[in-house]
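Pasting as-is:
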Amino acid sequence: MNLHEKIKPTKEYWIDAETPWEEVQEGLSRQIMGYDGKIMLVKAKFEKGAVGNLHKHYHSQVTYVESGEFKMKIGDEERIIKGGDSFYIPPHVMHGCVCTSPGILIDVFSPAREDFLGHEMLDL
C-alpha cells in the first residue's frame, strides 16, 4: 500500500469560518479545505511582499487566483497573474511567486500533499 492509499478521506463539508489557517511563514498562511489520497484543495493567503519560495514536487498542481496579484515563475517563464487567472504546474517543475498585492490562491494537488498533513490524518 502506498502512502496516498493511507491518507484518510476527510469530511464532506469544510466551512471557511470553522477551518483554521496555518501560518507557513511570515505573510503566508494556508487553509486545507478537503482531500483524500488522490486530490487536495488548499487556500493560500499572501500578504504583500510574501514569497512562495522556489520549489518543486511530484504532484500535479492547478491554481486559481481568487484575488491579489503575483509575480509567478514556472520553470523558466515568469508572468504577472491576478484575480481571475489560473495556472498549471506539471510534476517536478520548479516554481514560486512573490505577492505584489495581497491575495488568495486556490491550489488543487494530485495526489494529495501528504507533507501538509499531520500523522493523525494518515492511516499508518
